[in-house]
Amino acid sequence: MSENDTSWMHTEMGSTTPTTITVCGMDLADDIMGKISFTDLAFRMVAGRLPDERESVLFNAVLVSLADHGITPTVLAARLTYLGAPEAVQGAIAAGVLGGGSVFLGVAEDAARFLDEILGELLPVPDDLELHQAASEALSKLRKEGRRTPGLGHPVHKETDPRVPRMYELAAELQLLGPHLRLLEIVAEVSEQTSGRRLPINGAGVAGAALADLGFDWRIIRGFALLARTAGLLGHLAEEMRTPMAMPLWQMVEAGSTE
Amino acid sequence: MSENDTSWMHTEMGSTTPTTITVCGMDLADDIMGKISFTDLAFRMVAGRLPDERESVLFNAVLVSLADHGITPTVLAARLTYLGAPEAVQGAIAAGVLGGGSVFLGVAEDAARFLDEILGELLPVPDDLELHQAASEALSKLRKEGRRTPGLGHPVHKETDPRVPRMYELAAELQLLGPHLRLLEIVAEVSEQTSGRRLPINGAGVAGAALADLGFDWRIIRGFALLARTAGLLGHLAEEMRTPMAMPLWQMVEAGSTE
Amino acid sequence: MSENDTSWMHTEMGSTTPTTITVCGMDLADDIMGKISFTDLAFRMVAGRLPDERESVLFNAVLVSLADHGITPTVLAARLTYLGAPEAVQGAIAAGVLGGGSVFLGVAEDAARFLDEILGELLPVPDDLELHQAASEALSKLRKEGRRTPGLGHPVHKETDPRVPRMYELAAELQLLGPHLRLLEIVAEVSEQTSGRRLPINGAGVAGAALADLGFDWRIIRGFALLARTAGLLGHLAEEMRTPMAMPLWQMVEAGSTE
Amino acid sequence: MSENDTSWMHTEMGSTTPTTITVCGMDLADDIMGKISFTDLAFRMVAGRLPDERESVLFNAVLVSLADHGITPTVLAARLTYLGAPEAVQGAIAAGVLGGGSVFLGVAEDAARFLDEILGELLPVPDDLELHQAASEALSKLRKEGRRTPGLGHPVHKETDPRVPRMYELAAELQLLGPHLRLLEIVAEVSEQTSGRRLPINGAGVAGAALADLGFDWRIIRGFALLARTAGLLGHLAEEMRTPMAMPLWQMVEAGSTE
Lengths: 259, 259, 259, 259
Prior knowledge:
Four copies of one chain form a homotetramer.
Chain A: E1 14-16, E2 21-23, E3 26-27, H1 28-32, H2 38-47, H3 53-66, H4 73-84, H5 89-98, H6 106-120, H7 128-144, H8 163-173, H9 179-195, H10 203-213, H11 218-242, H12 246-257
Antiparallel strand pairs in A: 1-2, 2-3
């Protein structure tokens, strides 16, 4: 790179002049505000195109399915951080986001990646027979490596994760049940057949498959889970302002640790 | 607190059983997915009630108005963090969120708080005369303390921030132009009259006022700005994956610093 | 700023050539490694000069006094974040750092700032009479504003925070008991005399005063508290790897919240 | 776990009573302040034992070798975050820490893990012949998998990273040149012999090997790199307060992106 090459100083996300603001090539005031929903704009920013009405419904369903699960480790981390720095709510949100790693939220990404890599080896529109064959091979490879199947199994929802049948129902209604969602069903079937043990599809897995069918690269899928979770964190922080949980939580553990 | 008091272990955000997931008192699969948009759920989580249709339009308009501004310091921080830890996208998002402090995103909160404190001294439905009087007093107090007026002035949009007239137009159309938005207009007028210098309302200020008119406490308003910005960060990170900016940026400054 | 002005691309912190690394103007391999301790280098990086031997002892005493306090909210936040993202230990440390706001660690900064502002109004080497007078005025100003005295009072150490007499003893031995430390003692005395209630100096307050006497600007003092705390966070994370606390903590609160 | 089992509420890090503070089983005021350096305490917190004098010298040498490298992506992220939230310096430090992922600081961890896994297959005190044999096998495995050798190669120090010979010299002087450091040398030799291309040991690699020889688990080694880097971040933030770099950096990129 020449020292004077500034071509990398470029973004298609947006720009500003004294009289206009442009976001994703659209005029923010005239074309977006009051006309495009926040969720559709989020889709547009990452995908490079607006969703159609059906895609918007499925995308919203994915985001709400990931937004909150009551008390989670990330929620507790955010509340405890707020206790120490209430003047910097961005820190509490960041702390809540930082727990979104491999163990919990990463599952959506892992499932999308797993399905994507299988599909990448197949022809564009695989039929169920091909998917079955590919799923069998992928599962026996995972088994040899001693790895778990991304997107299957849940510590609480041992029979059925209620988000899963609903997502499939919606995707079918909207005619958006694409190859990632279909393959995930087949993976669950083959897994049960070959292991003799039912591991239901989990909510993160179906969310990852639905986002992949909407066209998103698996590398950004964890980001959508974090966007969804940020809304949940706001709800928890607003509740923490009214009915604090962090202080008694800390006091309890502190007392327990000094006995 | 007795050591056995566990009443603080309580949230109204959500809970899970083996067969159900409840979010804000609603069944996630049956009542939310496919029925309630992500934005409306975010509103519900913080406000404790769903928005009506008009409120939803204004709330979406606020969020899209805050979602992205092209190249900002927080965007650069997120991209630079991604360069060092691409396997942990939650860290890049957190780094981007952490710049949302007093200087940029805090303005929405500051404006809402400023307006809220003035309105808190007045009777419930103040008329314009009362608002003028109260604005004059508040501005002369700020002037004595050498402080700037929250919500006024913008380094680039010196005449008019294009988001502002659009937000007022929308709020009026939706019959949601409440006392915070009205007071902000009057503050801008009085400020120009008394100082002889026009400082236009800025986009963060009008967003803060609109959120306050929607019923949100000023303490959580920065959180909505951060939620909105998280969508923008996702867009920038997806772009960074395709066309990296962080590496040449770093190399340029590094080279410049060693000359 | 001209577009071609790159004079801001400058740091005195360090630079690299193919054969050398320079840190703070010294050769890293020849002049620092094996010769200058990490703590002294940290002092040098911020102060622009190396500490002498006595200063080094006091600086180390301050850092160890702030490094850990057993179970704190920030420690819990770090452990909970590690649970979700064990592959990204930087996120757990960041989450632990983010709770270092106004409520806990900010106290060191607040105390230093409070003392600094009082001393800034006095002549360079004030005697005790002047300090008494200035302390009285500052305390009555705080009282009028309904604010607490930075650096006084502790929820657990109601009589004496054990770090405080030890820090004064050390500072006296090392002949480093400067005006900030002296003023803090006088503030505590005057506070007790005028209120009739003993509020002991707390450990964060004495740390802030000692750092200010070492010549550090109050704006960076919270940073040293965070550096010290980072060592404590590493200890807790290493312990969390061996004997996990985050998982049972979460499970307990989760169970309690769904009863 | 029974709901009443609170045995997990336990830490060996520290505890507090109204009159005492205990850190790592020692009295903070009497046994640590003024007697144990911050660096030795950090070692103690993670290792569960204090270092001896020679170990302390090597440990300090590792930390100073990692503390700063002038302008890095993480430094820029911290400075840009400070620009937006100067009132929350913990956020700027966290942002700087978050870039410590796989690409830069993770190398110390990767090298330690790589060496540890090789040594784990060998008898306790392997001789050079065994190390050569094991290194050859490990390198040909890496080559087959198309992976780079952890700890070798540097974009700037193409001949010799100046930290490396210095660390080996120190370790030899201190009689602390253990199997990880020795194996790393042999890995570099074998790599050059078999590939015909010299890839020098890099500073992060030698730091990871030295920490592993000091007895630290590879899982916590990235944490020490982050502790060291936090000192560097403080230096950069103190400099940013005096001579800001973030604002002109942002303005330059922003201007370049809107041309």
